Amino acid sequence: MSSLTLAVRDCSTMLRRNLLHARRYPSLTLNLLLTPVMLLLLFVYIFGDVMSAGMGGADRSDYIAYVVPGILLMTIGSTVIGAAVSVATDMSEGIIARFRTMAIHRGSVLIGHVVGSVLQSVASVVLVGAVAVAIGFRSKDATALEWLAAFGLLALFALALTWIAVGMGMASPNAEAASNSAMPLILLPLISSAFTPIEAMPGWFRPIAEYQPFTPAIETLRGLLLGTEIGNNGWLALAWCLGLAVLGYRWSASKFRQDPK
């Protein structure tokens, strides 16, 4: 077989391994998925009327439309923490050190983790999206092309954050440290435009919310699904995704090439 065929075979094997782990130990994925679902229900049913009135909306449905794009991206940030924990577990248990000695494609180990995490992120987004639709979310006049672009943005954002999470897992001494180091992936959406417009924030706080990867991605997704203005957010979201993906890949590959201590 050609080297490409062997590489694809090894990557497929590692992907199956990670999906089997996720199926046998679903508690981690379910726990991470519970956070965005609970926040969605909390902000819609507890704060929905107040937040909608504060933003000039007529009723709770206006705030549902506003908050769902941010929750979907928060779902990705929450789900990819599982990749950091999984990689750190493999590192601490010596599995990755063992894989280094085997006659397999060097990148297949990391690619298996990344692709498996992206698939889990997409599945989680679909589940949270179904909950959002069940409680009243409706996309306004989004065309098929805009839906396709929204799905592509979610997948690309999941890929970028997964590479960052894999790097965190490679650099962490154990699973607990990996989980703690990946917490900013959940906290950053809380200080973005996910729950309230940037214009409503204090002036000193706005740069924190504006100059981070979640805000342009949220505004782009919101524009695609709800027909609001996207402006430069689309290009900024794409730049953040590509930059984070390259940074995470180089970080992960560098840590993978290092000899275990």
From TrEMBL:
Q: What is its main location?
A: membrane
- What PROSITE patterns would the database entry show? ABC_TM2
In which organism is this protein found?
Answer: Streptomyces yangpuensis
How is this protein named in the record? Transport permease protein
Q: Start and end of every ABC transmembrane type-2 domain?
A: 27-259
> What is the superkingdom listed in this entry's lineage?
Bacteria
Q: How does it sit in the membrane?
A: Multi-pass membrane protein
Q: Where in the cell is it found?
A: Cell membrane; Membrane
Keywords attached to this Swiss-Prot or TrEMBL record, sorted alphabetically, are:
Antibiotic resistance, Cell membrane, Membrane, Transmembrane, Transmembrane helix, Transport
Record field: transmembrane: 25-48, 63-88, 109-135, 147-170, 182-205, 234-252
Family the UniProt entry places it in:
Belongs to the ABC-2 integral membrane protein family.
